[in-house]
Amino acid sequence: MEKENVKIISQNKKAHFNYFLSDFLECGIELLGTEIKSLRINGASLSDSYIVFHNGEATILNMHITPYDKGNLFNHDPLRTRKLLMHKKEIRWYENKIKTGGYTVVPTKVYLRKGKAKIEIALAKGKKAYDKRETIKARDIQRDIERGD
């Protein structure tokens, strides 16, 4: 088995802090010509992005891909809505969880696998303020242990 060639472009660190994440899924993302070029060079931002299901399709909103500097008139809107490439069964499963369980779906990271742009999404349940404080407390304790204090 050969080692997979994966290059992480962007991670959504806020998602891990603001949500309890579960049920991760890798899916493709529909990009246009200059977007994939820009993704390889400049990267992307997932900070305020989220996923919406409508008419049997999954789309990602507010994902920022910096315009390609050599793209001039062929560049696209950096915040345009992009379609996610998922199986119909997966789309229905996530839609059902959102409707019944009070969940949302957020992107966690964007990466290149074998030259193809992929996005990892996760089912998310919002954390309360005290949950966030517990996360900070656990992180501080772990940091003190590693430092040797």
Supply database-style keywords.
4 helices, 9 strands, seven-stranded antiparallel beta sheet, globular, alpha+beta, single chain
Element-by-element helix/strand order: EHEHEEEEEHEEH
Structural class: alpha+beta
Beta strand count:
9
Low-confidence stretches: none
Percent helix, as a range, is 25-40%
Q: State the distance separating the first and last CA atoms.
A: 42 Å
What number is the mean pLDDT?
A: 87
Largest sheet: 7 strands, antiparallel
Proportion of residues in extended strands? 35-45%
User: For the CA atoms, what is the radius of gyration?
Assistant: 17 Å
> How would you write the strand order of the largest sheet?
1-8-9-2-7-5-4
Principal-axis shape equals globular
Number of helices, where a helix is a run of at least 4 consecutive DSSP H or I residues: 4
